[in-house]
Please model this.
Amino acid sequence: MSSSVIDFIATEARFGAHNYEPIGVVLSRGEGVWVWDTEGNRYLDCLSAYSAVSQGHCHPKILAAMVEQAHRLTLTSRAFHNDQLALFYEEIAALTGSHKVLPMNSGAEAVESAIKSVRKWGYEVKGVPDGAAEIIVCANNFHGRTLGIVGFSTDPETRTHFGPFAPGFKIIPFGDAAALEEAITPNTVAFLVEPIQGEAGVVIPPAGYFTKVRELCTANNVMLVLDEIQTGLGRTGKLLAEQHEGIEADVTLLGKALSGGFYPVSAVLSNNDVLGTLRPGQHGSTFGGNPLACAVARAAMRVLVEEGMIENAARQGARFLEGLKDIRANTIREVRGRGLMLAVELHPEAGRARRYCEALQGKGILAKDTHEQTIRIAPPLVITSDQVDWALERLATTLTQDFS
Ligand SMILES: *Cc1c(COP(=O)(O)O)cnc(C)c1O
Model:
């Protein structure tokens, strides 16, 4: 490592809160599926900033939209109208089939906004006694890092010493429709769930789970809130992961790839009167719905569709999964995935996934470990067959490597 690389890492360590444990690479440039470090080494990005850069790094059309808008108008606040918000609403509603949109910034803010909205809906429409609303969530969920959200996490690392937490959440196992049926009471306003649990290590529920969940929510007048912040916008090979089971959520949360990685943009989408219960002054955000965010998100959605990225995610994801399954290595316990949301789970004896990610870095691939034993693979949706094969070759040699 050159001294400049050491300086960046050491300076971060000296001044920054140590709430991350990054792989030892300092990136300075990106284009499509590739990123380069400060020394000019090239890597295939198999994390895509946790799926925020689905459209590929520095997509030229999103970049152009951002620069053009930044020259004209960046922020008005919602105290005034701007000439981008209406177009963003129209286009995201047309794309997703939603009726109402609430623009926010981070994913966690979208989740918080949905929680507020479904509670309000519960009191004002469903008739739940004030203060009694219950929201059901799943074990091993990941919905973000705010106090409200970490309060219903089941991960000790995420929660410990951050309390006291807000009440009103009930935790059930993921993928278990009978547990949902049992947990619902007359005061249940919503079931908040990820279609595939991303941070938990790409956990895919059994087939038919969401069909049953949809039925239970409808039968009990419970809002089904799907957190598609990671699974949405093509990542799993469909626009929304809910389409794999042909269901429709009542409330859908988008973030991450909604801006193609240029800027934090998130949204709460609803098909009914949930968002309709919010009145002026009851919720807001200084930056939410700003013209720069809207222009970036409009371009990010447009290229996703126009450049066939969703279909490509389905095609390349199938190729990638097949290729992973073909790797004969005794380090591998299981491979799983849908579209370009993939994971390799290692045997406990194989050692920590982190070591394999560091070895992959040496071979020109950046991937991220999650929960000790899992390597997550989620390249930009613009990846080609040749690039998939290139990655598979390197994964195969790394996973058959003996670290003992
Ligand atoms: C990343 C993520 C979030 C939180 O998004 P932030 O922008 O980091 O606040 C919420 N839910 C899911 C499923 C995510 O993957």
